[in-house]
Predict the structure.
Amino acid sequence: MNSQLEKIIKKYDSDKFRLMDILIDIQAEFGFISKEATHDVAKELNMAVVDVEQTLTFYHFFTQKSTGKNTVYLNDSAVACMMGREEIKKAFEEAAGCKFGENSADGLIGLYNTACIGMNDQEPAAIINGKVFTKLTPAVAQQIVSGLKAGKNVQDLYHQELGDGKNAAAEVKSMVRNNIRRRGQVILNDFTPGVALKTKLSSMQPKDVIDEVKKSNIRGRGGAGFPTGLKWDFCSRSTGEKRYVLCNADEGEPGTFKDRVLLTERPEMLFEGMAIGGYAVGADQGILYLRYEYKYLETYLEKVLEDARKDNRLGKNIGGVNGFDFDIRIQFGAGAYVCGEETALIESGEGKRGEPRDKPPFPVEKGYLNMPTVINNVETFCAVVKIIENGGNWYKQMGTEESSGTKLLSISGDCAQPGVYEIEWGMTISQMLEMVGASNVQAVQVSGPSGQIIGPKDFDRKICYGDLATGGSMIVVDKTRDMLKDIVLNFMEFFIEESCGSCTTCRIVPKLMKDRLVKILNGKGVMKDIADLEDWAKILPVSRCGLGQTAANPIATSIKNFRELYEAKVQKDVDYDCGFDMNKAVQASCAFVDRVPNAH
Amino acid sequence: MSKPIVATTSLAGCFGCHMSILDIDERILDLFDLVEFNKSPIDDIKTFTKQCDIGIIEGGCCNSENVHVLKEFRKNCKILISLGECAIMGGLPALRNGIPVEECIREAYLEGPTVTLNKEGILPNDDELPMILDKVYPCHEIVKIDYFLPGCPPRADLIWNALVALLTGNEMDLPYEVVKFD
């Protein structure tokens, strides 16, 4: 066996539950994961080769052949396209001399697409050799490629100053901007690490912590909105030899990037929140499941963890509380939207394909390694720190009756000031649009592709759980956009790409719906197509997880709120048009057998 | 009133659905009392001789001839029924849809383990032969289909009930057992 490979496997004690880490390291070391490496890993981990392959082939950033000495992953999310991705793509292709999805002939450059990388407020953006490049222009793309061809270090090719705040820190050195536009009273307000841990917990029993969180009425900030205190309570009551606290930092919903900002500016707060969670439910280990796209923060986050250990905010007898032990490790994903679903995240954390589990049992009963597990979003853990510092009642005063506290919004698209805003729940969409400097607005995509696209008639609605619940992704679409093509089609392609394939509904229906949408966009649609799309959308909620259940939403909600856009594109005087083209259909076979098509 | 006229055909199918039609057993005599058959393998009438009321289609479309026949059916029948999995979704023949058609032809005529006689590597390209489509299409992606009867094959009772319902104008009797397959 290759000695490097052996070293990697040893580093993780040949533990099959750490397969993700092993594969990530192999990919990083060799540039791809060969058949031989796959076999060696299987042997050393005492696994079947197909089981290793299952994991390996599931994730976008694991590849079975080289992706070039230098690899460009260009974001292809809707907002990237709105901000001029097509031009950037052409510039990269021209400069590299190959198409996207290929390596250049000399193997120096590989060009690949990737789903939203959490930079919607500074698109077009790409990850190049692990470093994030934002606000790309065609000229910059060409410079980058020629620089890489000349063997320059990727960091020497930065076309912008380092970003603000911790983005400029020695451990990060990234051009990413935080774009924090509004600081609320909770998360983006002033923060001193350790206050909650060291001055509050010593006088609180775990149950008191849960009660305080319950009192605050905070609900999960990932999007589903499950009451956090209740979740912690359930977990603390479940039986198991060990408990775990997991933080969901997968942030895959296109259009959301607030967790990236928190991980950059508030990691101490996040880790403190996880430790408080550990104290409350009786867990001594935390895992931060971090999306691969944010790997550029790894060194920095490891340092923050190390500092926390030194400062007794992690480790043994934290804050002087006897027996309060807690530590955190970082688990990277490898590019899979579905891993934002908590049970898929757990599967992935255990080294498997990110396929959602059947529920129940819920993670609070059987989660990571089948032990009781709390999983919360980055923002939730951060908010909990302030709740413990200032009390549940303080927190509850903010927001609305059923949605207490503040919410971070990731706002992008057609607006003057895209970025992160900490608002109190209850703000209307109109107020939000004014806040971000958006005019001539056609629509707002609330909560990303899995949410809904709404028009001006709904702009008086409120951002809160009773009305427009959201994980924070807000994409503004102005009237110059071709919504069906620029937004809806892009989102459907996203869901098709990201489906784990487990449920037939999610694997097949979005593809059929996309094909029908394309037919409509090509002018071949009829009224019945719109009705079919509406009917088919109703099938999806039987899927196992949120991805499948919401995969029809881009089409379903745009038909609901913008039916006229569909009706304008379909043929009115025809009641059936299959769009079938015989000449096209026989082209390939006739060419192969050397025959002139004679269709009539 | 003259008897309704029925036509049937098998496109990219296995004739299993037609066998299932015959499986209505002695009721076929009742059927002949109720309807007149036109173009169909059952009576071996090769071309439409008059406008029909009901066209029953087995199989999807894998080549240009299938498409041609299906369009003829649409022209000549008031009501078209997709009968069985292949007509409705492409069925087994559609297993090739994930494979480029060139590869399928290569396997069938040049490289497959059972190819022993084609020493010269001849590929079928005579103008008289149907042209192979890039994939197998379900019937409703070629012409408008009015009704779908699922199954592989659909049970004789399902076919019988559907035809009787169509002919009498009554609601179709579709008990759960008739449409549940697993």
